[in-house]
Design a protein that fits this description.
The structure holds 2 protein chains of 2 kinds.
Chain A lengths: L1 H31 L6 H19 L2 H29 L9 H21 L16 E2 L2 E2 L4 H23 L1 H11 L1 H6 L4 H26 L9 H17 L4 H22 L4 H15 L14
Antiparallel strand pairs in A: 1-2
Chain B lengths: L2 E10 L2 E11 L4 E5 L6 H8 L7 E6 L2 E2 L5 H6 L2 E4 L11 H7 L7 H14 L1 H5 L10 H14 L4 E5 L7 H18 L2 E6 L2 H7 L2 E6 L2 E7 H6 L1 H8 L2
Parallel strand pairs in B: 3-8, 3-9, 6-7, 7-8
Antiparallel strand pairs in B: 1-2, 1-4, 4-5, 9-10
Classes of the chains: A mainly alpha, B alpha/beta.
Chain lengths: ~300, ~240
């Protein structure tokens, strides 16, 4: 029974972080039709920025906020400088692929850049509150104060994001530009700026994912961090399971993936994690090719 | 003269879609642009609203250059374009589709008034305000598309085939609304239509396009009576 409860708890916490990463990928996909592989690099860079901020301000919370803001800035910069230039030359057979390949290149550039500047330094982010599980009637559960922080931070961000998307003018502009950019432009929406904003929000979500995930594990950061590669892969799988278009789908996909991986981890073997993620992806796509929240037959616009 | 187009040429790759097109449309007039498929009607509107870049020529609205401007800029100068095929966003609610047209406006109160007056013109939209645009009928979608354009407080309204795919009775309603709106709001309207007779009946002036050229331009009344136009476009 305890193992089962722990499995659910582990699944929900890790799933929450995958959801954040999936949201970042979905936002970029919706605003520019690009799968942003550089998201892992951006999250890593933002987390390094967060690490520097912890050293300077001596507060994890301030660092988390600053990492998100600066992560948003980095992401907006990438969209304006690299993506817009690539889209302007958007002709010929490789037009659809070029930006995606470019994000792969960026991922490499960001990682080696971090390696050059931060490579030798020991970088460890410690959790701001204890990450030792609560003990109830002799059993130490897989739920610690910091894991509660992770889950509540993700919930707060989801609520804020969904309020922005459904209740504000900016949210309406973001949705309209994603669904039908031409109509949005005719209605007076500055679609280019809105696209940049989509990237910026994605950058903030990715930064939050990195800042929450790192202290939850060993806390160690490195330029070639496997943790961040996994974050990208699992975030991507979660996004696709969810339908790639839908923010709610990204959350459902992240939680589902987290739970399934936790079951494998607790009941079978940790070496099967990677394989399980892909099997889940294939199974979902076989049953619902459009993803859990995706629309049948794809988009018309 | 309010809408002035002179020697406008637009190319789609190697194909010349509009060749040396000129027209003058007075403020407050409803101009019907008629012609067969591929005559360049849609291209004309897309060039005027900034969606398709022009190759050469001039187009201006009240002194603003329409060419080489982005659509999102032109909306702010009072140019609203309802593009072909019921330009609504099905994933958004009726109210959100309307609000979209007023996002750039900084006058929330006046925008709300505009919305109310659109609901008065098209009461069906008010009944369905919170429904997804996806659930609307063809005629209602067209009303919504026009409503969205009106939310931007336009002075020049560009309408691309509002009758497309609608039942005859609904077409008559939509055309009547377009005529009424033009008169009541003092709009200048360029109405592109395959339904030539219906469009000319409500229009003040008519322009006939054929293979990218203006082949006739007159008052709507004379065009209806013109035997050549009747034989070629009105079918009797």
């Amino acid at each position: 029974m305890f193992t089962f409860i722990d499995t659910i708890l582990i699944g929900l916490t890790s799933g929450a972080v995958y959801s954040l990463m999936a949201i970042a990928l979905v936002l970029v996909w919706r605003s520019t039709r690009v799968i942003n592989f550089a998201q892992a690099g951006q999250a890593l860079l933002s987390t390094y920025i967060g690490f520097e901020c912890i050293g300077r301000f001596n507060s994890y919370w301030v660092a988390l906020i600053l990492a998100m803001i600066l992560g948003a800035g980095v992401s907006a910069f990438i969209e304006i400088v690299f993506m817009r230039t690539l889209f302007k030359r958007n002709t010929g057979p490789i037009a659809g692929v070029a930006p995606i390949i470019a994000t792969l290149g960026l991922l490499g550039i960001i990682r080696s850049g971090i390696g050059i500047f931060m490579g030798g330094k020991e970088t460890i982010i410690r959790p701001p509150v204890s990450n030792i599980g609560y003990t109830i009637s002799g059993h130490t559960f897989a739920l610690s104060p910091f894991k509660l922080v992770i889950v509540s931070a993700v919930v707060v961000m989801m609520v804020v994001l969904s309020l922005i998307f459904t209740k504000t003018n900016i949210g309406l502009a973001l949705r309209a530009s994603a669904f039908a950019p031409e109509i949005a432009r005719l209605a007076g929406v500055k679609v280019d700026a809105i696209r940049t904003l989509g990237w910026a929000i994605a950058g903030a979500a990715g930064a939050a994912a990195g800042m929450l995930q790192t202290p939850n594990g060993t806390g160690a950061l490195s330029p070639d961090s496997l943790e961040f590669s996994l974050l990208l892969v699992f975030g991507f799988i979660a996004a696709v399971i969810g339908g790639l278009e839908s923010l709610i789908g990204a959350v459902i996909g992240g939680l589902l993936l987290g739970l399934v991986l936790a079951i494998v981890l607790m009941y079978i073997n940790a070496t099967l994690l990677f394989m399980t993620a892909f099997i889940l992806l294939i199974l979902v796509l076989l049953v619902r090719p459009q993803g859990i929240m995706g629309k049948k037959g794809g988009r018309r616009a | 003269m309010s809408l002035i187009v002179s020697n406008l040429c637009v190319d789609h790759g190697a194909i010349r879609a509009l060749d040396d097109v000129s027209m003058n449309i007075e403020q407050g007039q409803l101009a019907a642009v008629i012609g067969a498929n591929g005559a360049g009607k849609t291209t004309l509107l897309r060039a005027l609203s900034g969606l398709t870049p022009a190759t050469s020529g001039l187009a201006s609205w009240k002194g603003h250059n329409l060419l080489h401007s982005k659509p999102e800029k032109l909306v702010r100068f009072g140019v609203s374009h309802v593009s072909e095929g019921k330009s609504v966003i099905p994933e958004l609610s009726v109210e959100e589709n309307l609000n979209l047209g007023a996002l750039w406006r900084r006058d929330a109160k006046e925008s709300a008034q505009t919305r109310e007056s659109i609901f008065e013109t098209f009461p069906r939209l008010k009944e369905r305000a919170s429904q997804l645009a996806d659930t609307l009928s063809g005629g209602e979608r067209q009303m919504l598309a026009i409503g969205r354009a009106l939310m931007s407080k336009p002075e020049l309204l560009l309408l691309d085939e509002p009758s497309l795919g609608l039942a005859p009775l609904v077409i008559a309603q939509i055309f009547q609304s377009i005529r009424d709106l033009t008169t009541q709001m003092g709009l200048t309207v360029v109405l592109v239509e395959q339904n030539a007779l219906g469009a000319l009946e409500i229009a003040d002036v008519g322009i006939v396009l054929n293979l990218g050229h203006v082949v006739a331009s007159d008052t709507a009344k004379s065009l209806i009576e013109n035997p050549q136009v009747r034989a070629a476009y009105l079918g009797y």
